[in-house]
């Protein structure tokens, strides 16, 4: 099983629920509308429309249809099987089942199904000419988690009567506290799409993989609770920012969609339980929203996956999600996505898609939040530090993250659409970008200007406020360098082979993100949950030195920071932790120390390089190329050794 999370941190939203009832199919492919040009209206999808994300090259060789790495190290893998025609869904599924491949999802009228099988079974399935490609059912995590309304001018908009009345915001997240006083009677529609498999539980109240109608997105069910703490509070917090009584659009309606699943697997989560959203669930949820009849201004996705420095339209994941984002935009619905909290010069999937609205976070002093992703592909910044909003049990709490910034923009678009309902959504998005206060800063070696949301200026058509130069944070003092003479080479303690991360105080210059998967909700005021982000030291360490750091109490970097690094690596790497288990400090230690085989030596080199990246160094081209060698079932020992040698050169 390969669980690839997407953005929010440990509490992050990740797995989306799977749908079963009929919902809108993708419209017939049309030229992708640009967010800088008016979107052209398209006809409603016909019942026989196909999923435009599916490739159609029937001449592709069977071995080229299967994504590298699926089941490469034995066991079964959960995979999406793309089909050329939705009419082939049932016959292909029947054939697969007859050949002992487990068919776990068959969405109605869709050009894909989800199966679980071994590498050999998936290769056999790829021989069917009706199958166009097979790839992992990727997963996404939620992005981590007053004065913010005043900063963006929302208070001025409310005073003029713009509250989002007549519009709705669709929140694809962890569901919602349905009777929270911040929402009143404005919750107008609900759905749940939640994938299941071994160790993964549906969060739909009915226990199935899909549910629609009243109560479908309830975030207060027993499956949302772990040791008395609500794992599903993220969606309620996000919805409150977008359209709660204390949010940006307090008059807008809310469409709540639960898209996560509960995962009770410490190898995947790095802790006993977490939430993840599967690609298959997200695809179904976006189609369901596209088929709604009520006016929806924006879809809010405060979640994310792997990272990209440039727009990712032509990537495999981009090819799946861009047609869905474009279909929503053609219907007048913006897709607003968290850029991510990795202190990265780029954005996570699917925020990196050009027609999504990628949102970074700023603080109350009009500075880019230190954890926020940034760069040319980020469209807007919005408040994301110490944001108070609703959480289950009629309470409020304070969270920080691009998850909190994103609903500011989604709510702003509801106000913009209320004020000008006939204006194409692409034009409304462009207005937010051209009237926002410019942040000027350096990213990827070039000067970048990204607007900060200014709703008052956008509604008035005013000129932007003066630009603000964003000065980079001063480099910290040099970090202690563990050397070979600092003590005996640590060996695993057989009585404690799995060290538990123990957050501690430290004067180390490395940021100390407290990775909080759950937060105890208390009435305001509440404590802010810290955000897990990359370090800023940018110091390369060897595998031997990283093993000193990761072994309990033997290095200078706190366990909490190292645990954060492993979480970031799991979002960006295709090898860790799905193929090679490195989700905990103990397992990461063993990966670093094991160099007995060609594969093990490459794994050690790759983990070392990724740890350096998480520590603040840039550049992953060599690492990415080496991962392709590792994931290929055809790589020889010589190829593995060569890839390891290339990676080792980058860490010296």
TrEMBL record:
Keywords linked to the UniProt accession: Hydrolase, Protease, Serine protease, Signal
One Pfam family of this chain: Peptidase_S8
Residues covered by region (Disordered): 20-72, 462-514
Catalytic residues (positions): 173 (charge relay system), 234 (charge relay system), 403 (charge relay system)
Signal peptide extent: 1-24
Positions with biased composition (Pro residues): 464-480
Composition skew (Low complexity), residue ranges: 49-61, 503-514
Domain Peptidase S8/S53: 164-436
Similarity-based family: Belongs to the peptidase S8 family.
Annotated protein name in UniProt: Peptidase S8/S53 domain-containing protein
Species assigned in the record: Nonomuraea rosea
């Amino acid at each position: 099983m390969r669980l690839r999370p997407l953005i929010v941190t440990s509490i992050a939203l990740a797995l989306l629920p799977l749908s079963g009832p009929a919902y809108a199919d993708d419209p017939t492919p049309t030229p992708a509308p640009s967010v800088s040009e008016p979107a052209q209206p398209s006809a409603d999808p016909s019942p026989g429309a196909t999923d435009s994300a599916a490739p159609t090259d029937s001449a592709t060789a069977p071995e080229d249809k299967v994504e590298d790495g699926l089941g490469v190290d034995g066991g079964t893998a959960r995979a999406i099987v793309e089909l050329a025609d939705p009419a082939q869904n049932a016959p292909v599924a029947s054939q697969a089942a007859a050949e002992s491949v487990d068919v776990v999802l068959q969405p109605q009228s869709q050009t894909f199904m989800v199966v679980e099988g071994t590498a050999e079974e998936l290769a056999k399935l790829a021989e069917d000419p009706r199958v166009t490609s097979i790839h992992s059912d990727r997963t996404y995590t939620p992005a981590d988690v007053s004065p913010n309304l005043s900063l963006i001018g929302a208070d001025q908009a409310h005073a003029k009567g713009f509250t989002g009345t007549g519009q709705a915001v669709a929140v694809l997240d962890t569901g919602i506290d349905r009777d929270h006083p911040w929402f009143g009677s404005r919750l107008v529609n609900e759905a749940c799409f939640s994938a299941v498999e071994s160790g993964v539980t549906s969060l739909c109240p009915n226990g199935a993989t899909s549910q629609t109608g009243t109560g479908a997105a309830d975030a207060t069910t027993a499956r949302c609770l772990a040791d008395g703490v609500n794992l599903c509070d993220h969606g309620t917090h996000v919805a409150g920012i977008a359209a709660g009584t204390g949010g940006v659009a307090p008059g807008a309606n809310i469409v709540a969609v639960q898209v996560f699943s509960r995962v009770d697997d410490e190898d995947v989560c790095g802790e006993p339980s977490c939430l993840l959203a599967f690609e298959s669930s997200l695809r179904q949820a976006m189609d369901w929203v596209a088929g709604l009849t009520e006016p929806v201004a924006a879809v809010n996705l405060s979640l994310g996956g792997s990272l990209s420095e440039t727009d990712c339209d032509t990537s495999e994941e981009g090819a799946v999600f861009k047609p869905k984002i474009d279909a929503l935009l053609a219907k007048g619905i913006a897709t607003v996505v968290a850029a991510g909290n990795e202190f990265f010069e780029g954005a996570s999937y699917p925020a990196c898609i050009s027609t999504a609205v990628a949102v970074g976070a700023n603080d109350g002093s009009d500075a880019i939040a230190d954890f926020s992703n940034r760069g040319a592909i980020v469209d807007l910044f919005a408040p994301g530090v110490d944001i108070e909003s609703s959480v289950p049990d009629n309470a409020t709490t304070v969270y920080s993250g691009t998850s909190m910034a994103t609903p500011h923009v989604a709510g702003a678009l509801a106000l913009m659409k209320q004020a000008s309902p006939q204006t194409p959504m692409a034009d409304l998005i462009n207005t937010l970008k051209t009237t926002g206060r410019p942040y000027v800063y350096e990213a990827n070696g070039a000067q970048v200007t990204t607007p900060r949301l200014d709703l008052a200026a956008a509604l008035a058509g005013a000129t932007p406020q003066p630009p603000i130069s964003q000065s980079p944070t001063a480099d910290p003092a040099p970090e202690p360098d563990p050397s070979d003479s600092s003590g005996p080479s640590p060996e695993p303690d057989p009585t404690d082979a799995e060290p538990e991360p123990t957050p501690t105080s430290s004067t180390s210059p490395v940021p100390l993100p407290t990775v909080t998967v759950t937060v105890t909700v208390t009435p305001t005021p509440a404590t802010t949950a810290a955000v897990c982000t990359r370090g800023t030291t940018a110091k390369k360490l060897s595998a031997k030195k990283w093993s000193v750091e990761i072994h309990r109490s033997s290095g200078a970097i706190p366990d909490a920071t190292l645990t954060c690094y492993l979480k970031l690596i799991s979002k960006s790497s295709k090898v860790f932790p799905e193929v090679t288990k490195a989700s905990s400090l103990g397992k990461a230690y063993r990966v670093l120390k094991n160099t007995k085989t060609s594969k093990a030596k490459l794994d050690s080199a790759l983990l070392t390089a990724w740890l350096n990246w998480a520590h603040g160094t840039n550049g992953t081209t060599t690492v990415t190329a080496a991962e392709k060698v590792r994931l290929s079932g055809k790589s020889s020992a010589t190829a593995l050794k060569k890839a390891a040698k290339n990676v080792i050169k980058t860490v010296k």
